[in-house]
Design goal:
- With about 90 residues, the protein is α/β, with parallel strands linked by helices.
- It has helices at about 15-35, 50-60, 70-75, 80-90; strands at about 1-5, 40, 60-65.
- The chain has 4 helices and 3 strands.
- The protein has a 3-stranded parallel beta sheet with strand order 1-2-3, with helices on one face.
- Helix 1 crosses helix 2.
């Protein structure tokens, strides 16, 4: 098993999103073929953290949300729209 911890920028440039998604998907697919099991660990913050989780889900790769504080305190850092996506993924 391989565990992949995610942390990255919150504000990704929209003109590069397709590129980022493709590269992350390709790397996750490579690791999926190389190892029996992959688990992605992510704090589910906007930007890179969620981008990786979405690509992992496309490949049926398990992910674990790792929250740095209580849920009630953590959700205060997200906009309403971001909270919706956060809770969907959670």
């Amino acid at each position: 098993m391989i565990k992949i911890g995610i942390t990255g920028h919150r504000k990704l440039k929209s003109e590069y999103l397709s590129f980022y998604k493709e590269k992350v998907f390709t790397q996750l697919k490579y690791l999926q073929n190389k190892y029996n099991q992959i688990v992605v660990l992510s704090p589910l913050v906007d930007g890179a953290d969620r981008l990786v989780v979405h690509q992992a889900l496309k490949l049926d790769i398990e992910f674990i949300a790792v929250l740095p504080m209580s849920l009630k305190e953590y959700e205060k850092d997200f906009t309403c729209k971001s909270q919706d996506e956060f809770y969907y993924l959670l």
